[in-house]
Design brief:
- By secondary structure, this protein is α/β, with parallel strands linked by helices.
- The protein has 21 helices and 12 strands.
- The protein has a 5-stranded parallel sheet with strand order 2-3-4-1-5, with helices on both faces. A 5-stranded mixed sheet has the order 8-9-10-11-12, sandwiched between helices. Strands 6-7 form a two-stranded antiparallel ribbon.
- Strand 10, helix 20 and strand 11 form a beta-alpha-beta unit.
- The radius of gyration is 26 Å and the shape is globular.
- The N terminus is likely disordered.
């Protein structure tokens, strides 16, 4: 008796799957290919990879197998049990298999309906046996590539997944027909997690701590005090988020302490390489390899002023922590581990409350506004269609929160983002206008507009000014 995933059961229907339409569509395209497909899915822990794949498998003829850190033999026996259960074959369930080939052959032979094989946490098989990618390469080349099969390799240790499946030196290199690097969800989908439509202020506060990681988001309540949620879900030593950065980095990198020190330095505001090196008492050249690894892991990124014509060679580069949760943890939790471990988490919570909005949320809100620029442009609600959106800074410590520009049309929008309790007034617009001459970009032939984002609305004076001018846009 052959069963689909829906018939086989065992998969919870309660998995929250939000804003993964592009990834789901990519999987469906691979499923309907007229030839065998080989998909690599990777991304950090708790990002929703398994939920996506389990949802995708519903109603299809497919097997989901979760590899573990046990030996290759134990994993092969577990895979045999999964195949035997799926095929309803007691002989396979209990037989001893010395070769993976035989199991893949039994699972895929003689079937007209497409067979989907998902191997989750694939990197553990490669860790158990360094030759396993070569074994799977042989199986793919000599067997699966000629059958009605969709093979999906999924993993949460990004460095190992890249090394074992995507890197040029991997035996599996060049076999994949698609790859999905699953990243954090955007702010725009946050409202879908919380019924009852909480305020945007509340959503930004939640986003600033949880980032776009579904598992983190589900821990936080949309109502109540944000600081109580932080105390319960981050500062409590029994909560998994308390030690989450250790789990994220320990298996990805060696010298975890060095990486922690670098992330802490950036989170503390030392965003230039020179300042970072001075704080850590290290040579700049010795930090670059660590920063590259953190960038490959999608934890840190290098920024340059958005108007810079040659970003790769720019000397104005700064680094930022991309992950909101890690930024929060290294900014507030890591420096206070001694207090928390000695039973004084309440003191840390009070410190966070004093600085949380101005020192963290306001910074994250700038990123939210960048995302809004793209969304508004897609909806036709922006003055022009931008080709670039980002931060800008220049000499004399002049900074603009968000700058959008159209390189073809010569349009430039300077944006200020205010996460204040009170409505924003006309003085903010005047301050933004005063920065315009410092932004050196097509000064002789450009159309400049001014945009003010505010979480708490605007004063009547500023609304009146905006209504009278075509070059001012207010976004609340």
């Amino acid at each position: 008796m052959r069963r689909t995933m829906a018939e086989a059961g065992g998969w919870g229907d309660g998995c929250m799957l939000i804003d993964r339409d592009a990834e789901r569509a990519a999987l469906e395209r691979e499923y309907v290919r007229d030839r065998a497909s080989f998909v690599v899915v990777y991304g950090r822990r708790r990002i929703g990879k398994t939920a996506l794949l389990v949802d995708f498998l519903k109603g299809k003829r497919g097997v989901y197998f979760l590899a573990t850190e046990e030996s290759e033999a134990q994993n092969r026996a577990a895979f045999a049990a999964a195949v035997g259960e799926f095929l309803d074959d007691d002989l396979i369930k209990h037989a001893a298999f010395d070769r993976w080939d035989d199991l893949f052959d039994r699972l895929t032979q003689g079937e007209s309906q497409r067979t989907v094989i998902v191997i989750d946490e694939f990197q553990y098989l490669g860790k158990a046996n360094g030759a396993f990618p070569s074994v799977l390469q042989r199986i793919w080349d000599t067997m699966l590539s000629g059958r009605n099969v969709m093979l999906v390799l999924c993993g949460s240790l990004i460095s190992l997944m890249v090394e074992q499946t995507l890197a040029h030196g991997s035996p599996l290199y060049g076999r994949r027909t698609a790859q999905l690097h699953m990243k954090q969800l955007p702010f725009s989908c946050y409202g879908e997690f919380f019924p009852g439509e909480p305020s945007e202020r509340r959503l930004v506060e939640l986003f600033s701590v949880t980032g776009g990681v579904p598992k983190y988001i589900e821990l936080f309540d949309a109502v109540g005090d944000i600081y109580e949620s932080i105390a319960k879900n981050v500062l409590d030593r029994s909560s998994f988020l308390y030690d989450e950065p250790n789990f994220l980095l320990q298996r990805e990198v060696g010298e975890v302490g060095s990486y922690f020190s670098i992330i802490k330095a950036i989170a503390a505001g030392n965003r230039k390489l020179g300042k970072m090196a001075a704080m850590l008492e290290a040579k700049q050249t010795s930090l670059t390899r660590y920063l590259k690894v953190l960038a490959d892991l999608d934890i840190v990124e290098r920024e340059v002023p958005v108007t810079d014509p040659n970003p790769q060679k720019s000397k104005s580069g700064q680094y930022r922590v991309k992950d909101n949760f890690l930024l929060f943890w290294f900014r507030y939790v890591f420096p206070s581990l001694g207090l928390i471990e000695s039973g004084h988490a309440d003191v840390v919570g009070e410190r966070i409350a004093r600085n949380f909005i101005d020192g963290h949320v306001a910074y994250v809100y700038e990123r939210v506004c960048q995302e809004k620029v793209w969304d508004m442009a897609a909806e036709g609600a922006w003055p022009f269609v931008p080709t670039k959106v980002g931060r800008w800074w220049g000499a004399g410590d002049v900074e603009v929160d968000v700058v959008a520009l159209d390189e073809q049309g010569g349009s430039l929008a300077l944006c200020e983002c205010k996460f204040w309790k009170e409505p924003v007034g006309a003085n903010v617009l005047r301050g933004l206008e005063a920065k315009a001459p410092f932004v050196a970009w097509r000064n002789d032939s450009r159309n400049v507009s001014y945009v003010v984002f505010s979480i708490s609305g605007f004063t009547e004076e500023l609304r009146r000014l905006a209504a009278e001018r075509d070059d001012v846009l207010l976004v609340g």
